[in-house]
Amino acid sequence: MDIGDRDIGDSPLLTDLYQLNMMQAYLRTGLTATASFEMFVRRLPPGRSFMMAAGLEQAVAWLEGLRFSPAELAYLERSGRFDRAMLDHLAGLRFTGDVDAMPEGTVFFPDEPLLRITAPLPLAQLLESRLINLVQFQSLIATKAARVMLAAPGKALVDFGFRRAHGAEAGLMAARASYIAGFAGTATVLAEMLWGIPCYGTMAHSYVQAHEDEIVAFESFARARPDNLTLLIDTYDPVAAARKVVALAPKLARDGITVQAVRIDSGDLVALSRQVRQVLDDGGCRDVRIFVSGGLDEVSIDAIVKAGAPIAGFGVGTALTTSQDQPVLDIVYKLQEYDGVARRKRSADKQTWPGRKQVWRRHAADGTLAGDVVSLDGDRQDGTPLLAPVMRAGQRVQPAPSLAEIRARAAAELAALPPALRDVTVAGAYPVTIAPALRALTAEVDRRIATHG
Questions:
Q1: Can you give the residue ranges of the Nicotinate/nicotinamide phosphoribosyltransferase domain (predicted)?
Q2: Which fold has domain 142-321?
């Protein structure tokens, strides 16, 4: 498909038609003053106690490259939907606005803006669909990964989910989001190439099945791929296969090859890991770790860990990259101010708090999160402000943080969660207070709406 010299993911046509429809209407009616839109969630998905922000870097990179290619403009002209003034406007369109946002890896809660766009109204409106698309998904997956981290402290966690992700971009971004949340790495090779995320891989059952003898399969694989060697032992009988690993390990060791781990991908993982651990230990392979996978999520991993299973790490696939139990995060992007005047939506169950806002976070003496206050930007509250300048007049304020820095922030955020938010089996509550100044502005906007309709 020819959309010009760009990747499909960079196209501004990855949007809903009504954004372009409104753009033309705004331009025709002269509604081009500065607007502020904020992105937030109204409520947490069932079973969630918090969310983790991710995807900001991809959003900013998309804004930096925002432009319509000649091929895209030609398509819009052929569609017959838009007038010449609109097409000419799009030909020169670039992002010239401001971005304020919570840094990636930050924990957030309902009614808290995690990103604000301030730009001319037609431009700010156009951005909605793709920005939600980019931030919603990675935040959803980072949260899922964070929950797995809470369920398995001290364990090695690897993203195994690319093949079940809903598309190539989703699979790739899931690798990034889970790494932000603290996963050790991913099985997705391109994620290592793009971002340096450690890449892990073992072997499939098909490799074992292609050989007549399981121990021959193990040895041939070990000699072909001796580094970080992990052998898959549940193609037939994992306990019997563990005995074969014990028999093979000294032979490999004489040639400088070390079996690092065995992987079990099915069955009763608690019982099997105990049996395999016993076989390995009795056979002098105490340093060989047990890694498991197969339909795991944070709840099943929590149960395995609490059972005391001798498992060193987990591969998490489908449940992670689809956020299987809660596959969507209802992030919204709403107009909060236009031409210096606060705006507010009052639809039933979808009301918004008006104006440009900030979130202040307080910590208890032990460093745990104690409560957030949402108020107007500039209405200073106790605590640390969470939204920071990211772009001004279309330019980054500072270079993007490294993935290592983002991971460190996420780790600190998870470490600071109070006990009520750490249990992955029960949703906990966290206090988010709406400040008096914001409530007063809301009442003022309501009076204005009542007067003018």
A1: 157-337
A2: TIM Barrel (3.20.20)
